[in-house]
Amino acid sequence: MNKLDELIQQLCPNGVPYRRLGDIATICRGGSFQKKDFTESGVPCIHYGQIYTRYGLFVNETITYIGEETAQKQKFAEPNDVVMAVTSENIEDVCKCVAWLGDGKVAVSGHAAIIHHSMNPKYLVYWLHSSSFYQQKAKIANGTKVIEVAPAKLSDVVLPVPPLEVQREIVRILDTFTELTAELTAELTAELTARQKQYEYYRDMLLSFGENGGGETGNNINFFLVAEIADTNIGLATTVTKYKANQGVLLIHNSDIQENEIVLKQHEYITEAFAEKNHKKRLQENDVITVHTGDVGTSAVISKEYAGAIGFTTITSRIRNPQKVLPEYFCHYLNSHRCKAEIASMTISDRSNLNQNCFEKLRIPIPPIDEQRRIVTILDHFSTLCTDLSSGLPAEIEARQKQYEYYRDNLLSFTPAD
Fold first, then answer.
1. Distances in Å between the alpha carbon of 17 and those of 10, 25, 125?
2. Separation between Cα atoms, residue 97 and residue 95, nearest integer Å
3. Which residue from 236, 248, 256, 278 could staple onto 269, CB 3.0 to 4.6 Å apart?
4. Is-above-0.85 flag for pTM?
């Protein structure tokens, strides 16, 4: 029998009482200050938006302050009070809260509730993030575009109130579990970062050649301008709003182009008729598409899946002789640090635009075709390993989070007292 079981058997053998939040706490709305009232120093304050974006479950120092004069008109949370955001854009986030564990009082903004109670503050915050509370808040939340839970309705929320010794032990367990989960997430993220850097180092090493000038051979390596090995064009560069459709020809934006792959942020289409008027810009399988505005130079090879699509202000390169230059090799080189640095020096600094004429003047090292195949095979294999880890990482982190939530919800569920 573990310590928690021993405490429950000793202190509440007949079950744990469930109470209305309004019976064990006072709940009031926050004050009225806004972001424009922030100062570099003064009275510590918590703005409701920061609960979503800047704080974890517990906070003992604020990141913002308001002036003394503004503070005189505000509402304050005392140490150990819970500060809850009661307005959000979705049901998942509304009622997210933090325990104020600082030494003194803190000003609280509007769209927030201050919960003053006599419970263990960490226990209460852990419970307010449980599935049991989620089910109850879903019933008292109002709104569609903006979701709100009136502080007065929080009074009717029912929660288990075990003895303080039991609350403290649950907090100790969940603090430890939270720390272990965070450590594992950090380790997995670090592993992915290290693997990616290893891939980039190896790629750049494989694609580093001694340059002897355009067309001259040195160690079986020829250097050619992009214009000498490929035909390039800029994708659609005019407004397409009136030609958009629910179905038709897919648009590929600069933001959809990742290193060696297309990752669509959204599916946007233009009409077949408008696409036909711009048929020369339609993408073919094995074209290389390059970011023109944004992360300039980042490139991917068009697969059969995206053949027929049209890029929007992207740069397309169509290799003239794939028997001499592999599109995949060309793409890998464009993504190398050396090439990206050269491309960055060509961009229009205030807009991060890559001029097509400058792009065509890039010097590309072209080894023999067999060497290109060898390089592509190695880099594709290494890229696949990184991609597998990258796709597996979110799944692993999500699994750990679900495991934590399951464990937390079980710890916070009790047999009700008779």
1. 15, 15, 18
2. 6
3. 248
4. no
